[in-house]
Amino acid sequence: MKTATYRYLIVGAGLAGAAAIEGIRAHDPDGTILLLGDEAELPYDRPPLTKKLWFGQKQVADIYVHPVAWYESQGVQLVPGTEVTRLDPARKVVMDRKGTTYGYEKLLLATGGRPKRLTVPGGDLEGVCYYRYLADYRRTRAQAVAGASAVVIGGGFIGSEIAAALAINNVHVTMIYPGRHLVPRVFPADLGSALQEAYRARGLTILAGDTVSAIAHQHGRFVVITAAERELESDLVIAGIGLDPDVSLAAEAGLETGDGVVVNEYLQTSHPDVYAAGDNALFPYLALGDRRRVEHWDNAIMQGRCAGRNMAGAGAPYDHLPYFFSDLFEFGYEAVGEVDPRLEVFADWTKEYDTGVLYYLADGKVRGAMLCNVWDKVEAARELIRRGETVTPGDLRGAVR
């Protein structure tokens, strides 16, 4: 059988893949596009999986990026439920698990990442949920009836969000994580500890500084055993312990990889006709002057669009400063740039641990900002970071409000 060849082939039907179509069509209205995704779903937004779907603010039908008719209108051949297992850049083809090959002129790897998995006994038990996909939401939502109990493993973005969502829906939640406070990758210790106490006040059981050593099934329930020799029975076990970028196709094809698929400022990999965007891309972060990988919604969209434009010949560098957001009960925030608590952090609170702006500085320059219950100011924070001026705490009081 002759291999069908497309001008643009996108592997990964997530946000970055869907956004790439928009970028391509902005420069090339006619080139053939094939979108292959391993989930049996249209591309969808992931943030509602731990937020608005649980609060009744959205329904599943609302989270799809575009309806089927949009892909048809854009001339896109969409093939969900297709896992690509091999890439041959020399022949410019990919192969799926069934052995079908697809040719391309330009290829985008928008393969995202895979949830990290527990390596303890019982970490692979049926029903232990490594929460990331729409299927995980559907299954967990059906199980999360009022009065049920859940053990949430991990105190980062996913763990803190799904724990709050479950508690709001009257599930008894126990959180286990090795850190001393919530979300230690971005929260300074005082804010993370204050939010941790707010979770406890909401009735959640917090086992900070502990880890899971084993999981078992017993009498139709889970039993979670911790390193501190606690035994916890629950109806659900949900793990949110991080993400590994999916670099398998790129690595096996001989493309340069590290903590992600290495790309240049145009999002090209070490092969000029292969691009990468989204959670799997290790890119030059031009605004911060380093190279990193960003696992957030805004980056996936903007990077996908940029990759699509460049596949179609735009030749534009990716210079966006992506932001991310979260909702933890009444505490909501938006953050942009480098929000690393190992930096110097200046907190400009109007209401401590509730409303205000945290500035993250290195060598007297703002590298990142977290807007806590302060809204519609991301662009002002971006401008402050881009200016790269040396500032003092006095300069920052009220700088972004």
Task: Provide structural commentary.
The chain is an alpha/beta fold. The chain has 3 domains: 180 residues, FAD/NAD(P)-binding domain (3-Layer(bba) Sandwich); 111 residues, FAD/NAD(P)-binding domain, CATH 3.50.50; 67 residues, Enolase-like, domain 1 (2-Layer Sandwich), CATH 3.30.390. 23% of the residues lie in helices and 33% in strands. It is built from 10 helices and 26 strands. Strands 1, 2, 3, 4, 5, 6 and 19 form a 7-stranded mixed sheet that branches. A 5-stranded parallel sheet has the order 8-15-9-10-11, covered by helices on one side. The radius of gyration is 22 Å and the shape is globular. The model has no long low-confidence stretch (mean pLDDT 97).
Question: What are the defining features of this structure?
Answer:
401 residues, alpha/beta, FAD/NAD(P)-binding domain, Enolase-like, domain 1, 3 domains, seven-stranded mixed sheet, five-stranded parallel sheet, globular
> What fold name stands as the CATH topology of the largest domain?
FAD/NAD(P)-binding domain
Structural class: alpha/beta
Q: Please, how many domains?
A: 3
Q: How many extended strands?
A: 26
Distance between the termini: 62 Å
Supply the number of helical segments.
Answer: 10
Reported for the largest beta sheet, the result is:
7 strands, mixed
* Low-pLDDT segments, ≥5 res: none
The first-level CATH class of the largest domain is given as Alpha Beta
Gross morphology: globular
- Relative strand content: 25-35%
Average residue pLDDT? 97
The name of the CATH superfamily of the largest domain reads FAD/NAD(P)-binding domain
Radius of gyration: 22 Å
CATH architecture of the largest domain: 3-Layer(bba) Sandwich
Roughly what percent helix? 10-25%
